[in-house]
Amino acid sequence: MMSKLKKRFLPPYYPQDNYSQLHNLTQGSMSIEDYTREIEKLLSKCYFQELKDQTVVTYLSGLDPRYSHMVELQ
After folding, report:
1. pTM score > 0.90 for this model?
2. Domain range spanning residue 47?
């Protein structure tokens, strides 16, 4: 039923837009918590699951370099 609702009420480019937003998201002036929340929101809107390693790379690539280097070291 959910797939029928999505097909009827969401435009056909919806998944591509969410995927594009996910991969172009940068932290900018957002706090790390807000950035993380936004990543999680976009991931939940994508119809497919990325591999865990891909999600980590996507997350780190949008983080402020000061923080991404610290996270990579961990």
Report:
1. no
2. 12-73
